[in-house]
Amino acid sequence: MMSKQTRPRLEYLEEVDSTNAWCKRQLAALQNGDAVFAGCQTAGRGRLGRTWQSAPGKALYYSILLKRPLADLASLPLAASLAVQAALQTQFGVECSVKWPNDLLLGGKKLVGILCEGVPGGAVCGIGVNLTQSPTFFAAQGLPHATSLQAVTGADLPADAARQLALAISVQFCESPLLEAFYDKGFPAIRSQYKAVCANLDQEVWFEGGEGIAQDLDEAGRLVVETQDGVKAVFTGEVSVRGIYGRV
Ligand code: BTN
Predict the structure, then answer these.
(1) CA 207, CA 200: separation in Å to the nearest integer?
(2) Cys bridge to 46: 16, 50, 133, 136, which one at CB 3.0-4.6 A?
(3) What does the alpha-carbon distance between residue 186 and residue 57 come to, in Å, rounded to a whole number?
């Protein structure tokens, strides 16, 4: 007999190695839309093999399992960035832009990092949102291009800000018509919404293998860059695009 999908669950853990790793370990027990958030991570992971710094109690560490067919796994990080952008707008009234492919920026600095990983039958989307760290914290960590919601807005956040935001993100992933359209049709379904918030367009960008002006996003979510050697399509995951935080 097929087991019935129940309402997605949101689990809280005081401490975990990585919420993405936790979801992958719990894969068999979790259903589509189940999510976890943690007060701190001891082995948080970032994109391109980097680590993700933990600030206990001062940030959201969240992962959601999408256990469903996805038309376009490669551009899931771009769709995830729109889900988090909308949740931050709804919950805290802030308008983030997106640095291709999936960093959310506020006041020109990085507020959110996203790491999506394919799993059998779907994907895990891991999201780190800086909430109340101070500028001094980021300077001490050697992260001059990072910021937090409180550092930008100057407003005190509610004590349960992480839970509120986790719930708002889950609502976007599980109930937003835009995300539903993306799951079925892939990047073309969200292309215009993504372009409207993308911070790279018309900007100079550097990537492994070239530099130029980012002109567009193609139907696969690739950044279309006009270089001296012609137009190149830069693909999610293969490269890191620089330009917003300065050329490093
Ligand atoms: C990046 O490099 O920008 C991506 C960072 C992703 C961090 C989040 S925090 C929750 C989830 N668990 C992890 O280990 N990583 C992601």
Answers:
(1) 12
(2) 50
(3) 35
Residue 215: other Cβ atoms inside 10 A: 14
Q: Which residues line ligand 1 (CB under 6 A)?
A: 18-20, 41, 44-47, 50, 52, 61-63, 103, 113-115, 126-128
Question: Looking at the whole model, is its pTM more than 0.90?
Answer: yes
With the C-alpha atoms ordered 45, 86, 194, 220, is the resulting torsion angle positive or negative?
A: positive
Residue 77: both structure tokens together? 């990080």
Q: Which of 143, 10, 157, 179 is nearest to 88 (CA)?
A: 157
Q: Which atom of ligand 1 is nearest to the CA of 110?
A: 3
CA gap 224, 215 in Å, rounded: 6
The per-residue pLDDT for range 153-212, each reduced to its tens digit, is 999 999 999 999 999 999 999 999 999 999 999 999 999 999 999 999 999 888 887 889
The best mutation among 54, 60, 99, 127 to test binding of ligand 1, ranked by most ligand atoms within 8 Å of the C-beta, falls on 127
